[in-house]
Amino acid sequence: MDPRLSMDGGGGASLADMPRDGMGSVKHRLKEIPPPEVMKAELDKYVIGQEGVKRALSVAMYNHYKRLRISDDEPMTEQSLGTPTVGASGGVASMPPLPAPIDSFDGEPLVDISREPSEPLTMEKSNIMLVGPTGSGKTLLARSLAKLVDVPFAIADATCLTQAGYVGEDVESILYKLYQASGQSVEATQVGIVYIDEIDKLARKADAIAMTRDVSGEGVQQALLKMLEGSVVNIPEKGGRKNPRAEAIAIDTTNILFICGGAFSGLQRVVAHRLRTSSIGFDANVSSNAAIDEQAAKDGEGCLPVKVEDLMSYGFLPEFVGRFPVYTQLHALSEAEMRHVLTRPHNALLKQYSALFAADGVNMSVTNHALQAIARRAKQSNTGARGLRTILEEVLLEAMYELPSWSSRGVRQVVITGETVLEGKLPMLLPPPTDKGDEDPSDETEVHQALG
Fold this sequence. Notes:
Elements: H1 36-44, H2 51-72, E1 85-86, E2 92-94, E3 104-105, E4 108-109, E5 128-131, H3 138-148, E6 153-157, H4 172-181, H5 186-189, E7 193-197, H6 218-229, E8 232-236, E9 248-252, E10 257-262, H7 267-275, H8 286-297, H9 308-314, H10 318-321, E11 326-329, H11 335-343, H12 349-358, E12 363-366, H13 368-381, H14 386-408, E13 413-416, H15 418-422, E14 428-430, H16 441-450
Helix pairs in contact: 1-2, 7-8, 7-9, 11-13, 13-14
């Protein structure tokens, strides 16, 4: 069992030992709460740049944990709302008592937000919307978060969702993936986290009223509304489409945190239309409009700030956007960040290709000139970090084709140079390969043995 999903913090508790609520059902017990700076430090190991987004996600995860812990404190007291103290191990050491509230600050009276001990308090969740160009790290952030959290985490794709009754997957399939990630535990599912990728594909296709239903766009938005806000959703026990005769599982989504992300191609033009001022009359600010249009033309950069009204103009329902109190914007990676993506994070691309070369007994090295050339080409392609792998596959194709032969002929070092990237030349081979006879009778035998 995955230790992140263990309900006892150590992976060894039985169902009989787990706490139960008043209805007798097993509760999902969380481990220690990792503070936001610890989560961000872990994200820094996998994701380059996007500092603001990593901070927002770390705070969202931390608050999600606290909400779940506060919800388990029955009855809830003022002391239960104190801020946990971070221990030396990065977890919660103790809950310090709250100090007495002050009535004024700097001579100005403060607003009274205290509550009565018997006053009920419901901690509402804050779903997150990630807006950023392709290749900026949205999906990688979600996958990296899945390695850190102590609750079930599922990643779903919005492109295959359709309205109920049409070909495609129902929105309930999202919860079924979370149910599977939880080890088929309903209680663990109800405190999980869902990341919905490609959410921009659900935008209305046009502002005009169409003659047919938009079953894969606006129809899916409407189907997601109750799930995002919090309701009891019935999902098929064995997955697939809903069937009235099949067994169903009731999942309460009140405490499920939803994170959505998408590239939102063309959104910068929508933002530019909002920011653009009148270009007619004596007060027209022509230079300002020209600067806005120039930034909007760089749609993949994500330079202009996005607001809620821009998402609605893009094709999202106001009630759908309103269910995401937190939305944060990612920006396109710079050339310097591209170079860091190639070398620094865990699972960096050059580390992956180096391992492929090492499997044949050859070390792979890259010069700074080659590194800069690869990053520059990826930046010009406007496909973000995804373009780096495309360029590396093209640059290293000939070398990987010849690699087994080079290894057998004594080559132990392959150096990728700037000429290899820019001119398509072969990399430097150290030491140079030994000469191979024109007619080697063992060649044909080796090929037949390799092919079986």
